[in-house]
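hey so i finally got around to running the thing on that chain from the lab meeting. sorry it took forever, my laptop kept dying and i had to restart like 3 times. anyway pasting the input first so we r on the same page abt which one it is
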Amino acid sequence: MRRVAKGPLSGIKVLEFAGMGPAPVCGMLLSDLGGDVLRIDRPGASYDRYMIETRGRRSLVVDLKSEQGQKGVLALVEKADLLIEGFRPGVMERMGLAPEIALQRNPRLVYGRMTGWGQSGPYADMAGHDINYIAITGALHGIGTVERPVPPLNLVGDFGGGALYLAFGLLAALRHAEQTGEGQVVDCAMSDGTIGLMGLLYGHLARGTWHDRRGVNIIDGGSHFYNCYQCSDGHWIALGAIEPQFYEELRRKMSLDDPAFDRQLCEEDWPALKERLAEIIATRPRSEWAALLEGTDACFAPVMSMKEAPSHPHNVARGAFVAVDDVTHPAPSPRFSKTPGFIQSPPVEAGVGGEEAAREWGVEHDW
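ok and heres what got predicted. didnt touch it at all, straight out
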């Protein structure tokens, strides 16, 4: 059953055109913070309770190729504060729902467009996925081993450079609309957003404090003090003792008295020190390293699998995971002291609650 929204975005109407990847994640973020998200689904769409990114909204099934469907959707556009679409460039235009038409119907509308390559440029019309979008940014080049780039989880392009940047852009444009009455189009490209995330590293590259090669820098697996190591039980731990005081704490707790560890920032020594540290860590199970290093400033954490993470004491204490219909969900984030977010509903099938939502928005239509 849907709960009444009470978060910081309570009262904000979001019209979401069903898609995949970053667009529904953006809708989830807005819903978690109180937005009233109404998803437009095409006939035949199907969902299940495991599609966490689709939680917290109601659904309306509409034939967007029909005049009747387009008419009804444009009536919803007139009532919406935000619009999210994640189609390839030109799809909304072909359905008669172009930004120009939408903004003519609702001049205050913030029209969010989520794509991999953006609405313009030589790659704009090409198909792709996260691995492709981040390939042209420098990010994929920087992730992996010395020998080869390694495809990361789609956190970098889809969700970091995509969903989060879109949510940020929508809310910034919403503030402008509230102040001026002027809506606008937010063109969010995952490639652009990923380049934005890389800003700090591009600064280091320009300064000469970053090598444009994998596995030879402080935070890309090159150093011994910022790396992952396997324990005797096959589990892994993560160390990140960059600052001198934290590095000294790590050495003290692990009894790393060998003078070879004195030259922390000597890049030539890193390969040998990684091997030595790996040998030491491989002598004990993860639980023993946790008992030794947790609660200290050694910059330590155990590497948890997805099955393990929900039961880690820190995550339990913060309520970082919640159960919804017997499925483990990430809790809404970030945390608000006055207007906390919450999960408005589990994922729903196509068509559930949509007509009710349309009526609440003031739209009566024969869908």
